[in-house]
Structure formats: structure tokens, C-alpha cells
Design goal:
242 residues, Dna Topoisomerase Vi A Subunit, Chain: A, domain 2, 6-stranded mixed beta sheet, 35% helix
Amino acid sequence: MGARHDLSPFPSPAAQAHTSTEGITDAMIDAAVLRCALEHFNLYVADALTVEHRYQLPPARQHALGLRSAPTEAERDMAAIAIRLRYCDQSGFVAPLWNDGRRMRINTPVAGLIMPAVRGGHVRALLHYADAYDDAPKWVTSARFPLGCKARPSIHVANPEYARRKGVAIIAAHALEAEAIAGGVMSVAGINGVRPDALVLQLREEWPQLRAVDVCTEEPMPGIVRALRLAGLTVTEDGDEQ
């Protein structure tokens, strides 16, 4: 597969006037492709109300975060058409895209919720929640399809500015929980099942000056705690220093 810097206008024709192609990264392209897909998916009222009940996130906030109900076949087709028109065929580069030999398609679950994992301001991958009470979301992938690929696991960062200023953040289990905890006050990273070594690396990329974290998860995570301490971070668990 060749370089991706010569794709059709990104992120939009207007933005092209202010952005040279040399400044466009693969992460930016991936994020734009995934956001384009989410633009064509809906958040159903019933799903939004259930998420609001569970996480106290208003429906408007859920929509702004990119949370969507699992799309219908028609929504997937419309999203695939929009991606091809804006960014050419991206199958083989971005999960959950794939190609059936005739056209690019999108693989998504037929039920549940879709949530983007955002880090560094970019959508890194899509998470699938079976429902609003699912505490172990899975990555949306197309690896088993022709010209498909695996999702690139990523933490989800909510309200990053506090940690940039203070050097302190909270670790939550997953993206929706991170958004519920953040509340515009604290920086929270939802780990989304990311491996401990990758978690430390991504935290350092997001917050180079990070000094301390509070691991706020229902289930003990000794591997995560150990990796954080080995990285030189002060670790507390649910507010109690260890």
C-alpha cells in the first residue's frame, strides 16, 4: 500500500487552503475517515436515554462525543459512499473498512452502541458497547474481511487540559466511564483494555508532564498499577495512596 499524503481534499476544501499536504498525518486522515462515518450514523432516543440514566451524560453531550447507535445497512452504505467521495478508498488502512472486491464497505455490529476513542484530539478507533451497561467494550474491526484491518487500541482522553496544567489524571475502565467521571473538572483516561505498556506510552504522549494518576476502576488492575509505577508515576487507587 502506498503513501496516503496524496488523497483527495482533507479535512475539507476550505481547510486545504490553510493546511499543506506535508502537515497531514496518517492519524489525521484516520480520524477524519472515522468521523465521516459517524456523521452518517444516528443516536436513537432510547439508547440516549439509557446512557443518560447510566452515566448522567445528557443526550446532546453524547451526540457531541460521537456516541452512536449501531448503524443500519443503509447508514453504513451512505457512510461508505461519503468516505470514498471525500478520501478515496481507505480499506486496508482504517478499521472497520474493508473491500468486497467491488466496493469499500464498513463492518459494524448490528446492535449496541458505537463510541470513538479519542486521543490527542484524533479519533483513534471505534469501540462497541453491547449496551449502556457494558463495562468491557470491544474494538470495532474488519480484520476477518478482505482488505480489512485490525483496530489500533487506544486510550480515550476526556478533558485533557487539567492534566496538562496540574500533571494529575484519573484512570477509568473505558471511554463512556471516562466522560462520566471527567465532568469538565478532571482529566480522565479510559483505558479500554489497552495493554499496560501501550497505556504508559500513550499517557506519556498525551501528557509528558504527568506526575500522578488515580486508578478508579471497579476491578483491581495490578498489571496496570505496576506498569504505571515502573514508569515513575505516583499511583493511588480510588483516592487511597498505595
